[in-house]
Design brief:
This protein is mostly helical and 215 residues long. The chain folds into 2 domains: 68 residues; 90 residues, no CATH class. Helices cover 72% and strands 0% of the residues. It has 9 helices and no strands. It is extended.
Length: 215
């Protein structure tokens, strides 16, 4: 239903509707954690982020081909946008995140250094595994966090030291486990018709087992 907006041929009208919808949702819809208990299981609190992604896609398809050059000024925009994004995460105004998100990602296309960073194989490989990391990071942090709780209880440190030590251990483990799960579970399912290949292989294996039994 959201993608129906892309049926609108007028670029100006489509973008006005997208920006207006983002603004209305930002003002009227509370954040999921502050809303009713059932609210967080709907798409409503997150719709503004989906629409922000649609707006970014619109600019990517329509504007970037017209102005492909990259400038250092967009690198400055990128630094400011990411700084504002991080700052807003620690304030009581997370609804405003859509603005720095849009600018930060658009600057990733238009900046010189920011574009190099996001197009580096290491960066986009981690980005490709983001769903696997999203699915499993909490469980992994929970497992390793329990071990560190006992460690820090015996050896009390400053909070920033505890966070740093935990991060140095947890982040590589999360990347390692998520990479293995991505390769074994998610990547095979990214191929078109993967279930047909799996069914064919299963039939082959079953046929071999049955033939051995009959022999």
């Amino acid at each position: 239903m959201l993608t129906i907006l892309f049926l609108i041929r007028s670029d100006m009208l489509r973008r006005v509707l997208l920006i207006g919808s983002i603004g209305v949702l930002t003002v009227l819809v509370p954040d999921s954690m502050q809303a009713h208990p059932w609210f967080h299981i709907t798409i409503i609190p997150f719709a503004r982020y989906f629409l922000t992604g649609f707006l970014l896609l619109d600019f990517y398809l329509k504007e970037l081909p017209k102005y492909p050059e990259k400038t250092y000024s967009w690198d400055v925009v990128s630094l400011i946008a990411w700084s504002v994004f991080i700052a807003l995460l620690y304030t009581n105004h997370p609804r405003l995140l859509t603005v720095p998100i849009l600018l930060a990602y658009y600057a990733g296309f238009k900046g010189v250094f920011s574009n190099r960073f996001f197009t580096h194989p290491f960066t986009y490989t981690i980005g490709g595994m983001c769903y696997s990391i999203y699915l499993y990071h909490f469980q992994l942090i929970s497992v390793f966090g329990r071990l560190f709780v006992h460690f820090f209880a015996i050896h009390p440190y400053a909070l920033w030291v505890e966070i740093s030590i935990t991060g140095l251990v947890a982040v590589p483990l999360i990347l390692l486990v998520s990479t293995l799960l991505f390769i074994l579970m998610e990547k095979p399912c990214m191929r078109r018709g993967w279930y047909l290949d799996a069914s064919a292989k299963l039939s082959t294996i079953t046929g071999r087992i049955n033939s051995r039994r009959t022999e």
